[in-house]
Amino acid sequence: MRLTRQALRSTAAGAVCVALLAGGALGTPSAQAAPRAVAAGTAAADMVFTDIPGSGGITLKGNVLSPAHADGSRRYPLIVLPTSWAMPQIEYVAQARKLADAGYVVVSYTARGFWLSGGEIETAGPPDVADASKVIDWALAHTPADPGRIGMAGVSYGAGISLLAAGADRRVRAVVALSGWADLIESIYSGRTQHVQATGLLGGLGAVTGRPSPQMRRMLDEFLGPDVVAKEPELMAWGAGRSPATHLSDINAGGAAVMLGNAWGDSVFPPNQYVKFYENLTGPKRLELRPGDHATAEGTGLLGLPNDTWTNARRWFDHHLRGADNGIDREAPVQLKSRSDGGYEAYPDWASVERTRRTVPLTGSRTVRTGVDSGADGGVVLLSNTLDQFLKLPPLVSVPLLPRAYAAVWQSGPYDRPQRVRGTVRLHTTLTSDKESGTAVAYLYDVGPLGVGRLVSHAPYTFHGRTPGQSFGVDLDLFSTAYDVPAGHRLALVVDSVDPLYVQHNPVGARLTFSSPAADPSVLSVPVRE
């Protein structure tokens, strides 16, 4: 693991440098500019860097943009922008300027523990939530911000902190949470499987750009260590406290209007957990899902380029903080964009997305040997789904050439018309292992006439403490998606035991058998749009 982390740290450093260079290309000031006082008449084009008191006596590095015509005679709605993981305070400058030009006071700040902000990285723990309230306090005291019209927004880490702050601070009236998490454990430990590339990358970025707290370092070591099962109760409790889903009742009680945005292929925070959270929100809400990977759907907007995600974020704030009658409240709240075409689809709720399902029987029995990568895999974190977003090039595999000793394969017949997969594909099967622990990874492919499979979705599954030789049922939700299977193509389900994205728990020599008992047949349930 040490060599892996060193490599990830080098990658992290490069990624941060690219982000900073992008900010420089926009003409943004250095993140180390000397702080100065916020003047009431500051023009929107002039970003003011300042120190902001955080919780526990630390100092947060922030910047402020106010409307050009602000002269102290009136108050303006406030938007607070906590930075993404490992990003400095200049991250949102392009969007902050647009918001300020539209009549908002915008305060962005570097999250504690990163770059020049004080403290240590607490991974969206209580100090981070308290920081958000302290930034609001400071903004109300030092800018022409209106205490009755406060919103928060952010990408990734900033999204999670914004949602948590909405549950803790009733002053927050609207939230836009992009590429964030609602359930931290389900995001990085779905199917009881460690997402090693995602968590390793986050750990490396944190080490390069900040000061991880002792608790964060210990949790990361335990999570990626060999004894994760014994540490599960502690890890679960740690993750639950940092999950907006845990604080759902407080968020609902506060009544904040919540807009959620994510990408189908988010390899850090997959969309399933956001969908579940959205369904349980009771206040004004909106869910937008688009092609891409982590933060790529809104990434061009951070560079000041036209971007649907940020356009709708602005509309959300305009309606809920300024009372603008822009129609966003009358639109269908669930907005999906397929990975296969450029159009949007509107739904009144998530149940309507998955209203129609078709089943693919998984007949017969398949036994696979574990410990060898069959060639089917979910790709590379941040890279593969970005290629799919921009080039329509998801991970590929030749299904006929997959070694059946290491990969179980089932295929549908060719479809006579397109199959528009929408939502969460569900796998039910019966599994028998000759060991008490094991890992399987399920992949759904769109297979063309030449046998080339394009990855539609996938998900990992790990079990522990099972009696060797004793069968048990498995129900696995693959990561939600929107993908059009062309007429003449097939759907193929492939299950193997190794994927570079995940930690596998198959003992040496283990075998996994997938069967379909008559009393409990194995089946793949595929949601489709008619």
UniProtKB/TrEMBL annotation:
Q: Where is the signal peptide?
A: 1-33
Q: Which InterPro entries match?
A: AB_hydrolase_fold, FrsA_esterase, Galactose-bd-like_sf, Xaa-Pro-like_dom, Xaa-Pro_dipept_C
Span-the-membrane segments of this chain are: none
GO function terms (MF aspect): carboxylic ester hydrolase activity; dipeptidyl-peptidase activity
In which domain of life is the source organism classified?
A: Bacteria
Domain Xaa-Pro dipeptidyl-peptidase C-terminal, chain residue ranges per copy: 314-524
Q: Which key words tag this protein in UniProt?
A: Hydrolase, Signal
* Pfam families according to UniProt: Peptidase_S15 (PF02129), PepX_C (PF08530)
Similarity field? Belongs to the AB hydrolase superfamily.
What protein name does the entry list? Acyl esterase
